[in-house]
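Good day; I would like, with your permission, to put a structural problem before you. What I wish to show you is a protein chain and, alongside it, a tokenised description of its three-dimensional fold. Here, with my thanks, is the record as I have it:
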Amino acid sequence: MKRYRILFPLLVAVVLIAGCKGKKTGDGDIITTNYETPQLQAPISMNTSLVSMETEWAGGRTYHLLINRFPVDSLPKVSDERGQLYKDNKVEISVTRSDGSTFFSHSFTKMSFANWLDSDYRSNGLLEDIHFFRAADDELLFTVSVNHPAASDDEATILRLAVNREGAIAIGRYDENDRDDLAQSDEEE
């Protein structure tokens, strides 16, 4: 019994010391959280988009525009800062006359615009979309958006794509005059 009287206080002291050892008080509280890094998924792709519209152009004639964006497995994948892979897109533009004959048909990938993209967007950007915004006197005008995966629209590289009356393509930087044209186009809709 004497042994237990000596061991019991010792046992209580050990338990109290062990219990108080990891505790901090006041501003020095230690908070632990279990943060799990999100698991990477199979390559992510944007939804397919098909836009069909008509516009008057070239002397008041009606033209039908079809813009089809879709992810392509065979294009090089792009990754974000976590290493998540994304499929790049192809955009096909088709313009037909009112009699059904084809005026213009062309497929675009991000590399179609490589001369106007910096090395970061050539390597890490996706061809997000091509939008028609107006028919000018001699051109059908489009905007091209290349952006990093899951980035805001403010970060995108915006280019100008023009198709002239002969079906020739001209690509260039999107500038302030284009923004004014686009703003007018949005107000008219």
Summary: The beta strands are 49-57, 61-71, 78-79, 85-86, 89-97, 102-108, 126-135, 139-147, 157-164, 169-173.
